[in-house]
């Protein structure tokens, strides 16, 4: 099916400034050359530890942040040179669902006002007289009582607030939803409800998702394809089955072995590989393969040569590791 999102060589570097003169003393490489593609109705899961650049990537995909270089193309249209009205029009196709449902809603706005607000920016999507009905419909679609539109965020639970955030994102009839850790701030019992809702909406509206999480279980459940990020780069990507069933990158293997095994029958069958310490700083990342200081397979060349993301043993599977199996 149709490609709805294409990302080419996306980079975001933040200069680090110090002192009274704000001199640049370094560069934080938050995202350092990411390419992705997403088709209609498809879910791409993005996993990695905090600080690997997932949120910065999400903000660039949805034009909340301008890339340092590279390109985001939505429905065949590059967002790179768009400004003002044109940018607002294009970005309605790709909406962001935030991690923190507490911080992302204006506390002075009622639920109905929050869901209606996107129409102020894109007025041609719903005539003024139609908006009240539209808002009620959206609240219903996300499982909220349409009679509770006059409530304020502080009167809602975390799960209800996240539903408001989803209704807001849906108001503009997007093609792609970028979900940045949409359930990690919620109670475990509520997480499944929101994941189920997202799954149901995907079918109903043929949405494509970029689903970002550090929880590997949630991503496995939803994703058709998975990309694993480490220090601003994709180190492995492929089908859900390939990445979870036959991970080829030592970092992915370590992440998977550290994750709780949801199936009790399989518990204990994975050998646990420990990931030592925190990921290094993206300000001055390690030379060569940036994973080498934590890699249990590290070889001599690893600290010298950065491994490119190249085809692995299976079709559509890409791996950035010098020791990975390559196509026969
Ligand atoms: Fe480990 Fe070397 Fe592969 Fe990097 S390139 S993941 S250090 S084996
Ligand atoms: Mg984040």
UniProtKB/TrEMBL annotation:
Pfam families referenced in this protein's UniProt entry, alphabetically: ABC_tran (PF00005), oligo_HPY (PF08352)
Keywords: ATP-binding, Nucleotide-binding, Transport
Domain ABC transporter: 5-256
Parts of the chain that traverse the membrane: none
Presence of keyword Nucleotide-binding: yes
Top-level taxonomic group: Bacteria
Family to which the UniProt record says this protein belongs: Belongs to the ABC transporter superfamily.
Protein name, UniProt field: Oligopeptide/dipeptide ABC transporter ATP-binding protein
Organism: Nonomuraea africana
């Amino acid at each position: 099916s149709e490609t709805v999102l294409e990302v080419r060589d996306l980079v975001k570097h933040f200069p680090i400034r110090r002192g009274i003169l704000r001199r640049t003393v370094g560069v934080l490489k938050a995202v350092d050359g990411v390419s992705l593609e997403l088709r209609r109705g498809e879910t791409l899961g993005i996993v990695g530890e905090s600080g690997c650049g997932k949120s910065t990537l999400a903000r660039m995909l949805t034009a909340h942040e301008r890339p340092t270089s590279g390109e985001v193309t939505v429905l065949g249209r590059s967002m790179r040179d768009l400004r003002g009205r044109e940018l607002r029009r294009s970005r309605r196709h790709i909406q962001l669902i935030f991690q923190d449902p507490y911080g992302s809603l204006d506390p002075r706005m009622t639920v109905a006002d929050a869901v209606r607000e996107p129409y102020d920016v894109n007025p041609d999507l719903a005539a003024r007289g139609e908006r009240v009905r539209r808002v009620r419909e959206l609240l219903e679609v996300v499982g909220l009582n349409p009679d509770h539109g006059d409530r304020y965020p502080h009167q809602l639970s975390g799960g209800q607030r996240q539903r408001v955030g989803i209704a807001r994102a849906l108001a503009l009839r997007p093609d792609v939803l970028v979900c940045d850790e949409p359930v990690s701030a919620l109670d475990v019992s509520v997480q499944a409800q929101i994941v189920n809702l997202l799954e149901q909406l995907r079918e109903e509206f043929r949405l494509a998702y970029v689903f970002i999480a550090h929880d590997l279980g949630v991503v496995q459940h939803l994703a058709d394809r998975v990309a694993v990020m480490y220090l601003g780069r994709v180190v492995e990507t492929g089908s859900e089955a390939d990445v979870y069933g036959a991970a080829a990158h030592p970092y992915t293997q370590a992440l998977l072995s550290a994750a709780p095994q949801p199936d009790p029958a399989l518990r204990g069958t994975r050998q646990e590989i420990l990931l030592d310490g925190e990921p290094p700083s993206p300000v001055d990342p390690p030379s060569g393969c940036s994973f080498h200081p934590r890699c249990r397979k590290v070889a001599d060349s690893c600290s010298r040569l950065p491994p490119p993301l190249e085809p692995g043993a299976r079709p559509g599977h890409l791996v950035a590791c010098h020791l990975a199996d390559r196509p026969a």
